[in-house]
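New here. Your pick:
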Amino acid sequence: MTGRTVIRGGLVITASDEIHADVLIEDGRIAALAASATPAAEAFTTERSIDATGKYVIPGGVDAHTHMELPFGGTFASDTFETGTRAAAWGGTTTIVDFAVQSVGHGLREGLDAWHAKAEGNCAIDYGFHMIVSDVNQETLKEMDLLVEEGVTSFKQFMAYPGVFYSDDGQILRAMQRSAENGGLIMMHAENGIAIDVLVEQALARGETDPRYHGEVRKALLEAEATHRAIKLAQVAGAPLYVVHVSAMEAVAELARARDEGLPVFGETCPQYLFLSTDNLAEPDFEGSKYVCSTPLRPKEHQAKLWQGLRTDDLQVVSTDHCPFCFVGQKELGRGDFSKIPNGLPGVENRMDLLHQAVVDGHISRRRWIEIACAAPARMFGMYPKKGTITPGADADVVIYDPHAEQIVSAETHHMNVDYSAYEGKRLTGRVETVLSRGELVIDQRKFAGRAGHGLYTPRSTCQYLQ
């Protein structure tokens, strides 16, 4: 769909405004907005008009934390870039930022090239990359500078997973010092993996092998301790810090304290921590394995503190950490040993709807919904206002959203390439109706109209909260 399109009669919601306006799209970008039923809006003449009366017109979602085709624990995440980005579009997300992986003993460039090869020509929506740094050495540090220059401006490190992705404090400090110079942003998986491994070993020795023990050994205190340590290392390095998938109230408290001190520290949480809990991990007959992810699900009382953190802006972003593994044949690898369950949940298709439910439930406002799901991730990772808002000049990534439609989440009807839903049977109010990516229809009134290869790689500038 090229040329001009107008979206008429909807309530346009961005992070800053709500206005009944018509939206003119030209050559893949937002060309103009005008208050509905005014002469200015009526002057928008086009060959294609989309009626959004009674609907919301919102920016396409930006999911800044996905893992398509990620190798983990002897298997691979079950969504490819083709299936995963198609599912994202069904859920109203029009940009993902996935993680390219550096393997120990190999360079960053080699890992990035491998991920470009997986994604190129396969994506239904636009995509970017962060870089997982697993092997900090002089060569890696030099490569970080080059990657920032070409639009890969964020680097993930792990305080967890010794022997796989783990970095020690010295390696973390060096990478942070480098990012302080080159403008990159360090993203941290903050859990004390060395201590957790001891607790895993002790639990298994006691015969505690069920999925629920995954949550018990990965203690909230060890998330808080690692979050605190990451903040202090970043402070020493004079670098900004973004803590991924914050799940525990104690970790939120560490972020809040740092932000109150004026430090450039940011936090992300995910829908699973807002809507699921250790009750799910404890489901019988190995069903709990479906909910094994790291950081782990926490007891329900943590949820209120996460919502509060989103309202007070101590948490800025909700991403999915979408990393699906099928129950049959993948999650089942951990029967009899919870430490062998592949870590990850499917969610890229559910995020926008779950967060709209949070609006319905009174946890957040409509504009805050758009902020945490669209605008803040775009700003955090250097894509705003091209992505994350509806304003003249922005990419025409637009979702027509029906706030009154009812749906029941189910693996029977979702589009992610995984055999279960983490939110099976959950009733939601609100549903994506139509999705445009750069002005082209991807979802057209609940029918898929997109194609593999429409999605383009998006180089990014540095974190816009620091500029």
